[in-house]
Amino acid sequence: MPFKNVKALLRRESVGGALLVIAAAVALIWANSPWAGGYETFILPMHPWAADGLLVIFFFIVGNELKQEFVRGELRHPRRAVLPIVASICGAVVPALIFAAITFGQEGAAAGWGIPMATDIAFAVSVLAVVGRGLPPALRTFLLTLAIVDDLVAIIVIAVFYSAGLAWAPLLGAIAGLALFGWLQRGPMQRGPMRRGPMQRGPMQRRLPMKIVLIPLAVLVWYLMHESGIHATIAGVALGLLMRTSTLPGETTSPSDRAEHLIRPWTTALILPIFALTSAGVTISGAGDLLTHPAALGILAGLIVGKIVGITGGAWLTTRFTRAELHPDLTWPDIFGIAQLAGIGFTVSLLIAELSYPNDLDLLESAKAAVLLASGIAATLATITLTLRAARHRRRAPDPAG
């Protein structure tokens, strides 16, 4: 298969979800097999590199997608976007409150309140792509907006509550680097022929391609952000939000679109599967004990119940007390199915779990086991609900032959 076709295949959301599931399954089986020593020797040492390095690239894509939505997507229209935005915020707050209530008074465990707030955008959209044939396109838009805002909330939570003590010199350096990155997006180093002045002779020169400067600058911003004590994934989001979505003279596509086209297959094929492989290797011998811990119960209740209550309830209350309306192609059972799907925490939840319990291996293992179980249950419930909804929508759709 030509490499171009492979890249096109890797851009499919269903393929990304499948690779995530396979990587997590391999990690889980390997960590509980007779060869578990190999997992601990060869895979676990890669985890800090994957979490602090590779995952930044994924969050860059998230930030870039957020920028596109703010400029030309659903988030550009406040009235149209208000329903999934409020639903997403409620879907983050309610699980956190449920977790806090269950772990109240439990020393150490309460620090993980941010774990059930997250929705794995790649996994959730992939499941919808697999089971969503016949569902209205507006439902995918609702999920995308919901998941993007959810990611933004999770990013803010990580930056404010799960970062180490600040080192101001690297932080100011990172801010300066971000300002320079944003300025360069305006095109002062745009590719293309330079105009030759009347006194100049010889062939025209070409401006330096932006990527030769922007890529090293992005790496420098990542390093400085990491050294500042703020989790390095924030650098990825900030860089993504600074990407230019418009075109300049001589350009056929914007830097934002070019970056999306170039990087998305690599996040699908390598970055997220590697993170899942290095994160999901939870030892499940004695899993019953792991899942009876208050932190695990809080994660399970937050992701499975809290997401449904928060998203469905938040959306309903918004339509009840504001001018926001549910899209005419959608019904409340559709939103209920999406709320179930949002219970897939996985990548971001695993990341926040590691930030919550860096010095307590037992708590971390318990939290990881709960995230994996809750994500699996949420995916299963959502698959059943959305498959039934898709069948109903197909029956109600007009017959094109009629």
From TrEMBL:
UniProt keyword annotation of Lipoprotein present: no
Keywords associated with the record: Antiport, Cell membrane, Ion transport, Membrane, Sodium, Sodium transport, Transmembrane, Transmembrane helix, Transport
Pfam assignment, any one: Na_H_antiport_1
CC per GO annotation: plasma membrane
Primary location class: membrane
Gene Ontology molecular function, alphabetical: sodium:proton antiporter activity
TM annotation in the entry: 41-62, 82-104, 110-131, 143-162, 168-187, 208-224, 230-248, 269-288, 294-317, 338-357, 369-388
Superkingdom of this protein's organism: Bacteria
Topology of the protein relative to the lipid bilayer: Multi-pass membrane protein
Compartmental location: Cell inner membrane; Cell membrane
Catalyzed reactions per annotation: Na(+)(in) + 2 H(+)(out) = Na(+)(out) + 2 H(+)(in)
GO BP: regulation of pH
Similarity comment: Belongs to the NhaA Na(+)/H(+) (TC 2.A.33) antiporter family.
Function recorded in the entry: Na(+)/H(+) antiporter that extrudes sodium in exchange for external protons.
Protein name, entry field: Na(+)/H(+) antiporter NhaA
Species, as recorded: Actinoplanes lutulentus
